[in-house]
Fold this sequence. Notes:
The complex is a heterodimer. By secondary structure, chain A is mainly α. Chain A folds into two domains: 2-43; 63-295, MetI-like (MetI-like fold, Orthogonal Bundle), CATH 1.10.3720.10. Chain A contains 14 helices and four strands. In chain A, the strands form two sheets. In chain A, strands 1-2 form a two-stranded antiparallel sheet. Chain A has a two-stranded antiparallel sheet with strand order 3-4. Chain A is globular. Chain B is mostly helical. Chain B folds into two domains: 34-63, no CATH class; 76-287, MetI-like (MetI-like fold, Orthogonal Bundle), CATH 1.10.3720. In chain B, helix 4 (78-110) runs antiparallel to helix 5. Chain B is globular. In chain B, 46% of the residues are buried. The interface between A and B is large, with 92 and 101 residues.
Amino acid sequence: MAKSLKANSIRTATRKWCWLFLGPVVIAFIIGFVWPFIQGIWLSLCQFRIVSNAEFVGFDNYGKVFSDPQFVYSFWYTALTAVVSLVIINVLAFTVAYLLTQKIKGANLYRTVFFMPNLIGGIVLGYIWSMIFDGFLSAFQTSILTDTVWGFWGLIIVMCWQQIGYMMIIYIAGLNAVPGDMIEAAKIDGATKMQTLFKVTIPNVMPSFTICMFLSLTNGFKLFDQNLALTGGAPISGSPSIAHTQMLALTIYNTFYGQASNARGTAQAMAVIFFILVAGMGLAQLAYTRKREVQQ
Amino acid sequence: MAEKAKGGLEAESKGLIVLSVILAIICIIWVLPMVAVVINSFKLNTFVKTETFALPTAESFAGWDNFIKGVTLGNYNFWLATWYSAFITIASSALILLFTSMAAWYIARVDSIFCKVVYFLCIFSMVVPFQMVMFTLSRTATQLHLDTPWTIPIIYLGFGAGLAIFMFVGFVKSIPLEIEEAAAIDGCSPVRTFFNVDVPMLRPTMISVGILEIMWVWNDYLLPYLVLDVEKYRTIPIFIQYLKGSYGTVDLGATMALILLAIIPVIVFYLCAQKYIIEGVAAGAVKG
């Protein structure tokens, strides 16, 4: 009783300082997030080129989004890129993490090198690799800007180079948390290395797998800088013309700031759908981790 | 029995050697792209595309020309862009660290309905992709005259508050209340309690959050591109993106020289603060 009284009096004293502690963040948060978000929802229901001329059109924009061939194409292209990169990144990152936790000499050096690309920004990364791919592809008289297949795999390679080191760090943390005596017990019981790996180690690092898979999935869906710098959506062909390597985020950007900028309402509607998609994945992850925490 | 164990050990150490060799090879492949940047930054433009993977020869060697040419490419001074990048990164991270830790402490300690709303909105903002707000955010920034490098940290504080507050609240809740009660009994005001008692304990989380924010802001392209007046103010990613945008043919040699200049500070920062960076990234990933 006395204790809670004390806590309460401290709380009352602290409350006087609300403006100081919360004020700056709340103001910046309203400017940088809350107001743009609300305005964004509203504008997705309007037709406009300049916001002051916005005209309410209801759900028309959403209808246009789903009949836009570029959006539909980019959606499937993004989904494919995200899933393929998810599988490759996680398989390789786990393998490297597993090898690095095997008491190898110089493990720290390897870890340092593998993680390094993660610090380089997406734009710079895109240009480094566009030089490398073009240097390589020029021998075959082609370029990453004209070859759709290379455009796809090129982006996957860039994503792998950037993200494997990152995911590796999470897997290493998970692997180091596996109790040593559990592995020891499996060994004494005569389990082979492979059996130990699949029956003991992997089930124990499942939480890391969940985190990394969700992370690489949302990273894939939100990819923008690398996409812009590597191919910028090229090649563009067909009728209606489709940018063959353009992912969702870049499609939204181009619809906003492209030539037909009276399509801004549609672009904002695309952004809302994109938000629901990405937020859905985030919430699924949250729900999943919560559930697991309860079970433990 | 002993012999068998010995044999097993030998096989195991042989296996480890094979693994080391495999890892070393992957490592070399891993750094090759960066080696390619270094090599090509010293090559004449025409040779970058045809001899990308060859070392510079007497014929293709450009010396420091690419660097000299590169820093004024795109009619903009590269060092100016570096200065803006550095200022925006440091100012934004400092602002975020100071104000979000204060807010998080208040949220964790007072826990009123208003606090709960703010906290919920913060978590919500973490799952919102930038494209959702990019158009309206850049418009709001222009209207409020926040479109300069000196004011853009406010935008970063607003848009980046979510993750920082989330991480800080988690940590503040683990600090026992008794310490603060003792400070209060000794006549310490809440503001002093926060700065003198809590901030020192928050240091590890501050480093983690700081690293995450620095990496984000330094590499960010779209937000500053849309918010800033790019004719006047360019950060390094904007500068590099403009090399391709403004010219029909790009001087690849000079571009690689610039990219090298752009990643050297990042690599130096990484090698100096490696331990904190890796810890920070792991903490951010697990929580976010």
